[in-house]
């Protein structure tokens, strides 16, 4: 990955992670799963990362990659536990988890695109 690609990836991933944190905090207290917003956001991030490396990835393939992240489910379950016990802490935890998982997914995808494995 050259410096230009790394800079573009950083902008895409950090932007998606910031948006995911906002979604995570906003949805923490709602009975609606934040995945209904996070999955499209992360899917768009993966598609954008593919463009950085001149790789074409369909939205369906990107969704499959995003949807296969089991860590997302574990993180959301943990955050929901905190929401039930301490609402403000739960919102913060959900925001941090959503951002962290999005950031991790983004860098993993970027490395895989760089290696030509996606």
3D architecture notes:
This protein has 118 residues and is mostly helical. The chain is elongated, with a radius of gyration of 15 Å. The mean pLDDT is 82. The protein contains 5 helices and no strands.
Please summarize what this structure is.
The chain has 118 residues and is mainly alpha-helical. 82% of the residues lie in helices and 0% in strands.
The DSSP helix count reads 5
Structural classification: mainly alpha
Low-confidence stretches: none
- How far apart the termini lie comes to 14 Å
String of helices and strands: HHHHH
Q: Characterize the overall form.
A: elongated
Mean pLDDT: 82
Could you say how many structural domains there are in total?
Answer: 1
Instruction: Determine the fraction of residues in helical runs and give it as a percent range.
Output: over 70%
Using DSSP, what is the number of strands?
A: 0
Largest sheet, in brief, is: none
Query: Roughly how many Å is the radius of gyration?
Result: 15 Å
Strand content: under 5%
What's the helix and strand layout?
Layout: H1 3-27, H2 35-52, H3 59-67, H4 70-85, H5 87-115
Helix pairs in contact: 1-2, 1-5, 2-3, 2-5, 4-5
Features:
118 residues, elongated
């Amino acid at each position: 990955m050259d410096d230009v690609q790394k800079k573009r990836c950083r902008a895409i991933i950090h932007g998606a992670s910031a948006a995911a944190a906002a979604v995570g905090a906003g949805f923490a207290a709602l009975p609606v799963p934040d995945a209904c917003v996070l999955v499209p956001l992360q899917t768009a991030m993966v598609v954008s990362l593919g463009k950085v490396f001149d790789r074409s990835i369909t939205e369906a393939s990107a969704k499959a990659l995003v949807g296969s992240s089991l860590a997302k489910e574990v993180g959301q379950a943990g955050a929901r536990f905190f929401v039930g016990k301490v609402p403000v802490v739960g919102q913060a935890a959900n925001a941090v988890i959503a951002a962290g998982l999005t950031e991790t997914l983004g860098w993993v995808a970027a490395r895989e695109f760089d290696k030509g494995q996606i």
